[in-house]
Design brief:
By secondary structure, the protein is mainly β. It has one domain: TonB-dependent receptor, beta-barrel domain (Maltoporin, Chain A, Beta Barrel), CATH 2.40.170.20. 6% of the residues lie in helices and 58% in strands. It is built from five helices and 25 strands. The strands form four sheets. A 16-stranded antiparallel beta sheet has the order 1-25-24-23-22-21-20-19-18-17-16-15-14-13-12-11. The protein has a five-stranded mixed beta sheet with strand order 4-9-10-7-8. Strands 2-3 form a two-stranded antiparallel ribbon. Strand 16 and strand 17 form a beta hairpin. The longest helix has 6 residues. The N terminus is likely disordered.
Length: 477
């Protein structure tokens, strides 16, 4: 029995993008017109392989490293504020919970990825952007609409994929320091380059600020590295490493101050990966990742007894195979495995009715396979795909997606549309504290249709998109 959850959403979006005019030193090459240079911008997230931005069959926005450098953006959440269809909400000063909502749906319904690795964490299954800096970020791609066929759970409303830089050229290093009011100091380091067959890019930063109120301080240390070894042009063996440690004061309201309540979050991720291009018509990608999150609320002045802690760990395996049996056809298939352990300490639980657990946990295991066909004939692109996910707790989930685009070269106009389904499984928080037995994944059907017009040698892009999102929950008989 399917029960409508009563959450339908339909909106039309209009946006104007001004492309920055940047002059950069380059290796000697034949001159290209501004139109040609802009058309060469490539995205990955819409189809899981390289495709020109102006031919994307999905509603996509791209934030480049040049955009970030020009505007001196230090946090990813600030970069996302100008993206159409996204709403960024920060609950207080720097360091406080920062959530991103896509097309009006909940924050846990947007899948966030770092170089293809899912990084949604915590008991809620959402991603807190408070501590994510722009260190070593090459570009950010935002895909709106259901993307579960490509990215599985949490991609019900869309996907945000963050790509790190890949080192090239002579090694470079940049150091910076800043200072300001309320004892605010920020130091950062970035370095990238390529030495023989070894490439690397690293970024690290430290932010300290006391803000304007007592116990409202924020301390954040972050580091990220992307390293790789390429014995030839067909193979790259690499690794992604991230670490962050933040300590945030929770002052509460001015009428109910908390002078010593602090919240500490520690995260780290390691993700070795292999990219193997056998030929122009066949390539493989394999990623293994392990990430860990630890949270400590000390002394937890919310009426509970003593400090509380929450733990989250995840192991992910993602394999992708791109095969081109014909010049106009690409078949993308893959395998996905995900294991999550999440738990929270409850020292405040009363024991007067007998022994009660002081640490509750949840274990979720997922296995999935997907297949997508992409046909490209001149400037016409059509995509069709399906995905099957199996969970240890609530069984099977099927999703599908159809999308297409057509670019009119003469007028530099792109028409695009898509229809697909997405899903978001119950979070560990729902299962642990909700006392909801038999919960099933929340599902979504969405479609959109839009047009983009590029003007003034691609410096200005005007777009209009109409979309409908409707979600429901499958409940047992």
């Amino acid at each position: 029995m399917w029960k409508q959850n009563g959450c339908g959403l339909w909106l039309a979006g209009i946006w104007v993008t001004l492309a920055p005019i940047i002059s950069r030193a380059q290796e000697p090459s034949p001159p290209a017109s501004p139109v040609e240079a802009q058309a060469e911008e490539i995205i990955v997230s819409a189809t899981r392989f390289d495709i020109p931005l102006d031919q994307s069959p999905a509603s996509v926005s791209v934030i480049t490293s040049e955009d970030i450098e020009q505007k001196q953006i230090e946090r990813v959440s600030d970069a996302l504020r100008e993206v159409p269809g996204l709403s960024v909400v920060q609950t207080g000063t720097a360091g406080q919970l920062t959530s991103v909502f896509t097309r009006g749906l909940r924050s846990e319904h947007t899948q966030v990825l770092l170089d293809g690795v899912p990084i949604n964490q915590g008991l809620q299954g959402a991603f807190n952007f408070a501590d994510l800096t722009t260190d070593d970020i090459g570009r950010i791609e935002v895909v709106r609409g259901p993307q579960s066929t490509l990215y599985g759970p949490r991609a019900l409303a869309g996907a945000i994929q963050i790509f790190t830089k890949q080192g090239e050229g002579m090694p470079t290093i940049m150091l910076s320091g800043q200072g300001g009011s309320y004892d605010t100091f920020r130091e950062s380091l970035e370095s990238e380059g390529k030495i023989d067959n070894f490439d690397y890019s690293i970024g690290a930063s430290r932010l300290d600020t006391d803000n304007a109120r007592p116990n409202n301080q924020y301390r954040n240390s972050a580091a990220i590295a992307n390293v790789g070894w390429s014995p030839n042009e067909q193979l790259r063996i690499g690794g992604l490493f991230t670490y962050s440690l933040s300590d945030t004061g929770n002052p509460n309201t001015i009428f109910d101050p908390k002078p010593i309540d602090n919240f500490l979050t520690e995260r780290w991720l390691i993700a070795p990966h292999v990219d193997f291009r056998i030929s122009d018509w066949w390539q493989h990608k394999f990623v293994f990742s392990y990430d860990h999150e630890r949270q400590l609320n000390d002394p937890n002045q919310d009426g509970f007894v003593g400090a509380t802690r929450a733990l989250f760990e995840r192991t992910t395996i993602d394999y992708q195979n791109d095969l081109k049996p014909a010049s106009w056809l690409t078949l993308t298939s893959g395998f996905f495995y995900n294991r999550v352990n999440a738990g929270q300490e409850r020292p405040f639980v009363l024991q007067i009715f007998g022994p009660q657990p002081t640490f509750v946990s949840d274990h979720t295991q997922e296995t999935a396979g997907f297949l997508q066909a992409t046909a490209q004939i001149d400037t016409l692109i059509f995509v069709a795909g399906g995905r099957f996910d199996h969970f240890n707790q609530f069984g099977d989930v099927w999703t599908y997606r159809f999308a297409g685009s057509y670019k009119i070269d003469r007028t530099n106009t792109t028409l695009h549309s898509s229809v697909g389904t997405g899903f978001s499984p119950p979070s560990s928080q729902d299962k642990i504290f909700g006392n909801n037995f038999g919960l099933e994944p929340e599902k979504d059907l969405g479609w959109d249709i839009g047009i983009e017009q590029r003007l003034w040698e691609n410096r200005v892009t005007v777009g209009v998109t109409y979309f409908l999102e409707r979600d429901w929950i499958q409940r047992p008989f």
